[in-house]
Amino acid sequence: MRINYIKKIDKVLFLSVVFLIIIGLMAIFSVSYSGGEAAFLNFKKQLLFALFGTLLCFLFASIDYRVIKNYTGIIYIVMATVLLIVLFLGSSTRGTSSWFSVGLFGIQPSEFAKIVLIIVLAKYFSEVGSSYNLFKKILVSGFYTAIPVSLVIFQPDLGSSLVMIFIWFAMLAVFGLKKKQILILFFLGIAVSVASWTFVLKDYQKDRINTFINPQSDPLGSGYNVIQSKIAIGSGNIWGKGLGHGSQSQLNFLPEKHTDFIFAVIAEEMGLVGGVLVIFLFAVVFYRLFLVAEEAQDNFGKLIVLGAAFMLFFHFLINVGMNMGIMPVTGIPLPFVSYGGSSLISFMIIIGIVQSVYINGRRYRFDKESDSL
């Protein structure tokens, strides 16, 4: 690890991510009061994940991101193989076979598959160029995306598959789709969604969508989570009830409070101030990501950073939205904040790769300035 590279990272981006992790740790520690020793174990594990993820972030920041380009084929094959293996050998949790259990820890390959997809699509789009045949571009990039999406859907993990589809569509759109072409893909997406509703989605996934439309239709069943989340957010007022004093979270009315609905815990116990702070920090992260993308020295780096931005934005939009009752519940974690080792570590890895793009972009600009003198 080249220490001198670490000193050149985008400190604003890194510190924004660190503050989000700290807020998440505070919320997880708070809900551990009502969850006993098992819940407190979650806090200790998340702290360990944060430290390990930070180390990996620095490691990937110190590696020239262009080196990864040479191994995308191997990485993609390994990713697809692991996603296939987890279907047969993975641990089943709530009907979903998406984990490898390693002692007290679990590894969710689909979280890392999102990063692999970003890198593979970035390489493909950067190599074919904007003048390449559009139909072939859609077909080939869609094929690269369809394999991991299909394997993840079979787990079944609707949330992760939606993230991958959004990454593909957003990167494709940025790469030069015209409005008419975006419209065609939009209607194609509707057709696929209708087919998925009929042949792919499980009953509990359909219930989540129906609950999104009308949470009061089953207030004690599928609509319970959203209703309790909205109550928690609304009861926080300006300053919140204080850490460890949220009625919905501490009395266990709010389900999945350390993962899917951690934003509701923050809003209840830290109030509007805490909720706005989280949103502000994410806004800073997105702003810095787009700045890094603009200053990247090649299309490969630019597309990696944009892919990371799209992935994080979709996670943020869906998670905060479902906490507020304006998005369907899909089990998508809030980046850097929600409990989960695989998600936190994968997010820190992609931030590390973004930092590598930033560091090498700065060095490229400085070299050009030196040559012009």
List the helices and strands and how they pair.
Layout: H1 3-6, H2 11-31, H3 36-61, H4 72-89, E1 91-93, E2 96-102, E3 105-107, H5 109-128, H6 134-153, H7 158-174, H8 179-199, H9 203-213, H10 224-235, H11 247-250, H12 262-295, H13 299-324, H14 341-372
Antiparallel strand pairs: 1-2, 2-3
Shape summary: globular
Spatial order of strands in the largest sheet: 1-2-3
Major sheet details: 3 strands, antiparallel
Reading the helices and strands in chain order gives HHHHEEEHHHHHHHHHH
Number of helices: 14
Kindly provide the radius of gyration, computed on alpha-carbon positions and rounded to a whole number of angstroms.
21 Å
Distance between the termini: 31 Å
Strand runs, count? 3
Ranges where pLDDT stays below 50 over 5 or more residues in a row are 369-373
Strand content: under 5%
- Roughly what is the average pLDDT, rounded to an integer? 84
Number of domains: 1
Helix share bin: over 70%
What is the structural class? mainly alpha
